[in-house]
Amino acid sequence: MRTGTDTETFLEVIEFGGGGPRVAAIGGGTGLASALEAIRGYAGSISAVVTVADDGGSSGRLAPSLDIPPPGDIRKCLIALTPEESVWRQLFEHRFTGADVEGHSLGNLIIAALADIEGSFELALRSAEHLLGALGSVIPASPLHLELEAVIDGKPVTGQVNISLAQGTVERIGVVPRDAAVSGDAVASESAVRAIEAADQIILGPGSLYTSVIAALVVPGITDAVNRSDARLVYVTNLVTQDGETLGMDAADHLDALLHMTGVRPPGAIVASDSPVSVDLPLEQLVVDGEAIATYGADLVTAGLLDQDAEQPSHDPLLLGEALRGLTEK
After folding, report:
1. CA 125 to chain centre
2. Alpha carbons within 13 A on the beta-carbon side of 281
3. Buried b (16+ CB within 10 A) or exposed e, 185-207
4. Which of 40, 121, 128, 221 is within CB 3.0–4.6 Å of 188 for a Cys-Cys bond?
5. Degrees (nearest 5) of the Cα angle 32, 78, 188?
6. Segments of the chain assigned E as strands
7. What are the distances in angstroms from CA 23 to CA 50, 81, 100, 185?
8. Can you count the helices (H) and strands (E) in the chain?
9. Burial, 104: exposed, middle or buried (Cβ in 10 Å; 0-12, 13-18, 19+)?
10. What is the model's pLDDT at position 13?
11. DSSP code at position 178
């Protein structure tokens, strides 16, 4: 087992960068992974603070039985920070299609094994970063496996998957330790707090509004760290609405929910795509009303950010990276 504390190891990691800004990105899922690919092109150091409330798929099967944070979103971020093709990257991306391990990602299993070997989930991630050659650090928002709890149209809904599928207005959302045997409240990872406080730029989004971005921010200590930081806060809007979470909402509605449900300070800049997007109903291209956005005091930056080659509406990492880089130069 490796010696030294998680914090000591983390502090070595965040100082790897060159002359670029220190960037912390907060969220989860494919949205955060897309942002990390963009950030990779200009940052001197990168810290991804990832939600630990995922309860679906391979993560939902592994986390409760092994008593670790769900590794799925974390694995996606590790891969997004890995620019070079390698056998290790192929292993982390491999998903089984049969036998007892059907549906499991091999990367999730490797992370779980490393946690057992290292005796610490965060030290396991440092080892995974080394194996992959990742250009940054991936940090769970909490050392605990947390469960999302929401009130939707006046009714309680528990679990990330259930909340993402529920239809209605989300009135409140929070997190609690998933393991009932855990005493005390949910708490942020010390490493996550340090990374946020040390950042020059903090990125929120894109990604599922309630079950990724807000899910990470409502971990006690995360929003407080953002509000204490001197970093410029940037919110990257989604390209389209999301069935079960944000149907009928425009960009200003997203921002209003983000601010009121988390208490996070208003962003200094909002980055939005003006590329036309074609989607099937009930989904719609996200409407960005410049006048409504201006009431929040944020600079609105628009550009063609759509990845024209992606099967699903996605941000082009190079184009998004150029927009985010420009905000570090102002």
Report:
1. 15
2. 0
3. ebbbbbbbbbbbbbbbbbbbbbb
4. 221
5. 65
6. 22-27, 45-50, 137-140, 146-152, 155-158, 170-177, 201-204, 232-236, 269-273, 299-303
7. 14, 13, 40, 28
8. 14, 10
9. buried
10. 40
11. S
What's the whole-number mean pLDDT along residues 237-258? 95
Domains and CATH numbers, the chain: 6-328 (3.40.50.10680)
112-154 pLDDT per residue, tens? 999 999 999 999 999 999 999 999 999 999 998 899 999 999 9
Strands (E), 130-241: 137-140, 146-152, 155-158, 170-177, 201-204, 232-236
Paired tokens of 82: 């890995």
Distances (CA, A) of 185 to 2, 51, 147, 210: 28, 16, 12, 20
Q: Are 313 and 32 in contact (CB under 8 A)?
A: no
Phi, psi of 279 (to 5 degrees): -135, 160
Q: Would you place residue 262 in the very low, low, confident or very high pLDDT band (cuts 50, 70, 90)?
A: very high
Find the range with the poorest average confidence among 63-67, 105-109, 199-203: 63-67
Q: What are the pLDDT digits (tens) for 187-229? A: 999 999 999 999 999 999 999 999 999 999 999 999 999 999 9
Contact 316/274 with Cβ under 8 angstroms? Answer: no
How crowded is the C-beta side of 243, counted as CA atoms within 13 Å?
6
